[in-house]
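Work package 3, deliverable 3.1, input record:
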Amino acid sequence: MERRELTCISCPMGCLLSVELDKEQITVTGNSCKIGLEYGKNEVTNPKRMITTSIKIKNQNGVEKMLSVKTSETVPKDRIADCLKEIKKAGITGDFSVGDIVIKNILNLDVEIVATRAIQ
Amino acid sequence: MREIEMVIVGGGPAGLSAAIRAYELGIKDILIIERNDSLGGVLRQCIHNGFGLHIFKQELTGPEYAQRLVEKVEEYQIPYRLESMVLNVSSEKVVTVISTYGIENIQAKAVIFAMGCRERPRGAINIPGDRCAGIFSAGTAQELVNMHGYEIGKEVVILGSGDIGLIMARRLTYEGANVKCVVELMPYSSGLKRNIVQCLDDYEIPLKYSSTVTNIVGKERLEGVYVAQVDEYRKPIKETEEFIPCDTLLLSVGLVPENELSKSAGIDLSTITGGAVVDSNMQTSVPGMFSCGNVLHIHDLVDNVTLEAYETAESAAGYLKSGEKGKRMIPVISEDGVRYVVPQYINGLDETAQLDLKFRSFDVYKFTNVSILADGKVVKTSKKRIITPGEMEKITIKGEVLEKIRMAKEVSVRIGGDEVGA
């Protein structure tokens, strides 16, 4: 039986979670909400993170702009570096509204890269 | 001279939120004056998550939060001017604005100050050593990387473990830099615990507590810094000094409300918050001039900036509709463990249903309570699991307790303290 103490990162509250692993059974305590419960379970089996970054793109008129983006949901922690590399080399062009998909299904992870800023 | 009912200085989250609420309360003659080329303020460069959980019930990035506010401003067609800098606000509410169109004086009936804050620079903390390239305040580095796409350095040391420093540790790691360590003067971090995890632990970036940068070495470009541990008086311990080679130093050593304009308007400022002294209507010492957001006191969550701005707009709108009302100023005193309280005065003649007292502590306190006293008698106690200087606390007062407070000659806030009635 293993016990781990972690800080939940799902929201700025940062609840201190206690996660017990007993063979296949995972018990989470210390969470204030459901999201924390999920986070605790995932963190000890398959930790995931949201990625936010910004990239150089060319808008519709070919002018270089900075586009801030985020993943539509969390991705496995060990794929963060690969995702960042993929986003950087994608050579994005065009105009975007907040929420537009910039890259669909990045690295087959079933996650979209989404614009968080409007570019005209 | 042009006349405008409500002039809002600053188009960041405080200014935008105030404008939106003022409009909804029937004030149509508004002008937001913003010095940058777009609305949104510092949110434009805060491309990370963590904004909007309270206001929009969703976790948004900074630009997305700003976008929600801008969309409302556009929907209401609230007038705003970009690339326009307010140079002066007189105590008679004449606002002097400069832009590419020239210089203009505007006679305002009410002014809301929402200019935000600036970062404490190297000079303010007197780090000795060479003055070479490669030293940035964390926010400047954030702007250069996120808004302009610059690569600012490869081997990085960050001084200060507040949220800006932590966020930039991760951001620069994403951009391929080697962030060697974060150095923190205090024995604890003022940043959110979640940021320690997702910005440092995730990338195995060491956090050196009770340490500081004691010297900077570099001819044209930074070559390295000396880092030493500090004693209980926060003085460096010379024997612990070590040299860390690096080409980039980020300074995340505090935010300072930007009140040059407030000074020129003759508004009383607090030396503790760095912002205006305000009453429970968010009105400054000059009637018709209000202050909200980071320019009043430094916030941790933008959601609270929006709430504060809404309150401020409500008062400013009330001022415009009914003029100066009767006031009885009750001072709010910070006692045991409380560094400051905003507002610094409560208007005893006010009739709103709710009063929010916001404060910060001097130190970390665990399993304690916060007491509000009216004329020396405890009227409200709130249990707190933990209070830290890095997290602004808010106590909401309503009903009978609020009535008692409004009849007092003096109100105080303290950490620890006895039960109600003692």
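The mean pLDDT of chain B is 95.
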